[in-house]
């Protein structure tokens, strides 16, 4: 692979300890389960399936980590982006509410346990996540929601004033909620480590192998991969915001959104030491959210909302650099060496989707910016279901691929909406409203 649509220009591609290099499919294959998508979700499912003795084949049109798993911000945030417990209850119903609340609040711990179990070298650290408030109204809203989630076991702490400015390294913010279980990973290193672990367990992984069509017959599924075919009793679709080419129907439930990131080269010690000095990750409450983190060798990563050209190339890096200097004035004049981006998948109610559109076809997607931890939860759920777990025993309800309301209008208006959100954010920050 030479083109990650921006990801090869990423800090992650530059610093990954070892890249996975796999072959393309060169013959017809038969297996118990075919997994489409070699990212966090698909490889977590493949690892679980292979360790259970299942004959599993993983296919990806690009390669391991080609999609969001190799391009994301690497923040491990221990909860869904759902404001109130009642909102989650409304979305999934009482049967699944407590299960999903429990696995989401425990998702960060579960991921770090997984990394330790398999000895994955991905610079994992669990030093906490700061969610800083961009205005007083946002502070009140965030604290109200945090208090409600604390009743269900969320481990939050409220911070004010100088302590927020010290821990964040930014003079902009006066209040924050800290999630102690949050942390960070090098995402491309993590997905690569999962690939090696799944392969060691017996999974076969084929890169540069696009699935052009899929059809269900009496004996299972047949996947058309150009000159070769894959026959499988079951299929796991784990392509998230990149699912359109394989199953356009499941794309109707999510809205792909482009996020972008930039990273510095090594900064002087006196500057670097002012940025998130205790190693927290950070995000803010703006509609056009920012997120950032420290990296080894005095590097700093900053991310936020972006856009894509018609060819899928990420855009919006100049605006991101300007925003970084607004939030961190000490970065003025700093050279940003890397810039990259990719697509995340947003659902209408901010809850991931577990679907079975047809017998033997399992789909997991829609992590709403919390995919580093939640995709691993989903991967295990998909594997459990493929192994025969009853649908009503799982943390996610089985949903239908019903279209998101006004999805086409939202897709067409994303650029205008992002500009409007940025203007509202800036007004609120200046006014302190």
Structure overview:
The protein is of the alpha/beta class and 433 residues long. It has a single domain, classed as 3-Layer(bba) Sandwich (FAD/NAD(P)-binding domain), CATH 3.50.50.60. It has 13 helices and 21 strands. The chain has helices at 11-15, 40-51, 85-92, 94-105, 107-118, 136-150, 161-168, 187-201, 269-272, 317-327, 371-386, 407-412, 414-431; strands at residues 29-36, 56-59, 75-76, 129-132, 156-160, 175-179, 183-184, 204-206, 213-217, 220-225, 228-237, 254-264, 281-284, 290-295, 299-305, 307-308, 314-315, 336-347, 353-358, 361-365, 398-399. Strands 1, 2, 8, 9, 10, 11, 19, 20 and 21 form a nine-stranded mixed beta sheet that branches. Strand 19 (353-358) and strand 20 form a beta hairpin. The longest helix is centred in the C-terminal third of the chain and has 18 residues, at 414-431. The termini are far apart. The relative contact order is 0.20. Mean pLDDT is 92; it is low at 1-5.
